Structures are given as C-alpha cells and as structure tokens.
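Late entry, written up from scratch paper. The run itself happened at the end of the previous shift, but nothing got recorded in the book at the time, so transcribing now.
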Amino acid sequence: MNPIIVLTEKNCRDCYKCIRNCLTNAIRYSDGHAEILQDECIDCGECVVACPRRGNFVENDMDEVRRQLRAGRRLVASVDPSFIAEFDVSCIEDLREALSQLGFDAVEEMAVGAELVSREYERIMMDGETDVLISSVCPSINQLIRKYYPDMLKYLAPVASPMEVHCRRLRREYPGAFIVYIGPCYARKREAWETGCCDAVMMFSDLKQWLHEKDVHCVNSHTVTRQGIRARRYPRQDGIVKSMSRVLGWNRVSIDGVGDCIAALEEMRQRGANRVFLEMTACEGSCVNGPAIRSNRYENRIHGTVAVNSYAGEYDFGVEEPDSIRKTFTPDPVQRRSVDEEAVERVLEKLNKATADTALNCGCCGYPTCREMARALCEGKAEMDMCLPYLHEQAERHSREVVDSTLDAADRVIDKQMRVVQDIASILGETTAETKVMLEKLKQAIQ
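Output as recorded:
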C-alpha cells in the first residue's frame, strides 16, 4: 500500500505523541523512532497534527500540478466547502479570483457533490433499503469500518463521496482538463488513488504556500447575492444531517472524532439500532477542524463553524446527476498477530505491572493502559524502554548495584589499609593509632 503519511526518522525524539493520538494503534516504535503501519492506518492525520517536531511527510501533488500548468493543461479545482473556514473570503467567487491568478481555469464548489449525496441518502431511507445507515462521506471512517469493523459494512451507505461525485461531474463538464481537489483532508489522497476521480489532491496548507509564493492575496471583493445552500453545511459538526430533509420515522445522530466513532460502532455491535442515520466524521468538529487546517492553527472549530453557518442557508443547487452515484465498499480487515494472553501476562510481570497496584496506566508510553502496552510489545510494535516507570525502576536498581559494589570495594581497601596500619603499629608502637581512627571514620562515612 502506497503511504500517504510517513514519519521521518531524523525528527523522531521519543515523545510517543503520535502513538498516544493514534486510536487504531497503527504505529510501531523500534530502534528509537516511530513508523506508520500502512495496512492498519486510516489516514486520519492525527499523528501529523500531534507531532511537536513536524517529524512527518505527507504525500504532496504540488509539483505535478505545477508541471501540468507549465505544460499548458487546463486546471479545474473542486474546492471542499470548508474553504470558507480556512481562507479570509466571503464566498467561492473570492477564492475563484485568487486561484485564477495562479492559473486555474475553473474553480467549483464540492458542495454540489455533497447535495447529490444527501439526496441519495434520503432515497435509501425512504425506500427502506436498510434499518441503519452510516454516512460514507468521510474516507477515514470508511477505512475504519472496512479494516476494523467489516461486520458493519452492511450499514455503510453504498454511495460515493461528495469528492468523487463532484470530480466525475467536472470530468464531463471540462473534458481533457486536469482535475484537482483542494481541501483539509489527507485521506482524500487515498480516495483519489483508489477511485481515479481526480488527477491531484492539494491541501489547504499547500494552496496557502502557493499563494504566498506568488504574492496572491484573497480579498473579500464579492458579496453573496443568492440565498445560502444547505450542502455548504457539510464541513461542520452535524452538517450532513442539517443538509438533509427529514425522513419520517428515522432518527439522525451526529458523531465526530475517531474515538467516539469507534465507541458508536462498538455499541452497534452490542445493541444494534433501528431506523437511525449515523453521520460519522473522523475529525472532532468535522472538516472545519481537518488535519490540513489544524497544522496551521491549533483549533478552528468555533471560527470555522461560524463561517460555515454564515455561508450556508436553506436552498439547494438544484442539480441533477445523470449517472448513478452508488458504490460498493469491500472489506479490508487488518491482519494482526494473534497474541496469547499468557504472553501478555508474562510481559506485565517483566514490567512489574502485573497487579492493579503496580499497573499505573500512566500513558507515558503512548498507550492508555499497561495491558495495551504489553500487547503492543507482544505484537512487536513497542519496546520495553518506552515504559518510563519501568526505566525509573531499572535506573534505581542499577544505581543501587553501583553504590553497593562501590561500598564493597571501598570496604575491602579500608580493611587492607587497616591491616597494614596494624602491622606497622606492632613495629612502631601506637604512633599510627590516629591513622587507624581516621580509617574507621572513613569506613563509617562511606557506609
């Protein structure tokens, strides 16, 4: 599997923050640095955001986009609706004007694809095709279900993502053009590779860099003359739900963040549900807090959500899609080493974490519990030295051994010197008595 995100060895400095923030445990630590296990990764980008030293590399299409531009190819952009949360613009026309200065021939809102996806979700619920429907908008959540919850695939909406739907429309509208998706989501790169819906994927951070290099500034030169569009709510928390019309008898639930989505899927396994639409997004706060936005600003949830609310409304684009936007998702279960619980217990014994009193679950190693750390050790994903309490105990034991051996050596030297003093004293009398006393005091002080 081609990597989207790669952790660079030279910048990795034993902080374990990437491990702590990876909720699928898709990171292995060995030889002093972390490594992403691509088969287990869902490309959510949390490791990129968490890394304090920017010790990561994200696959970048910027050079290819520029090469196509130099070659005279027409560039057409599909812009994620979260652009309104990241750029100082009032509408798509402002951003379109800035991108035209870079050489783009056309700039369109991906919200068009979002509207078509919402209408398809409504049809599925109204036709009663399933009792539970999970949104298929977020590519990281799609990967999470395919890899870790393949039994939940029956609930994943068989609908292409807004990016895929919109980019395919652009291919028809602009034949021969080079289609570029621009947004806040690293996982879209994987989706583009797998579907071929677009030719390149640029992050908002890439676009900002390009605008800076060309000294192009976004300006609020246009006013929004038409009523806002419902599908523009997609980037905010519960935005998918808010872009849809209610379907009688169905409940709608919005869940954001990988951890909460995992908890919801576990609940579904245990208790099931009936006539529920689940909006799931990997980023807390949804796309307004996507990884390519947080890499520039720590958080964007309040400002981003307010900007989305201001730009959205209650109307539709009113577009039609001549082709089917249905899609089949296939399972891709993660193949992990089976770990014997007895082996885990042996590791806990070695770490001195076998009891409730000694298992601190401090999280310093990056794993939430000592048992998960021990399991990672058995899977070859971790090293003993990642456990700081264990290291502390080892250091104390080593210090005691050094001190004890030093005391033993000093004791032997003093005893030898005292024997020499006694021998001399037997010859010279008691003139060396003071030396003997001093050696006795020295021995007591060392002990």
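The longest strand covers residues 178-183.
(Scratch paper discarded after transcription.)
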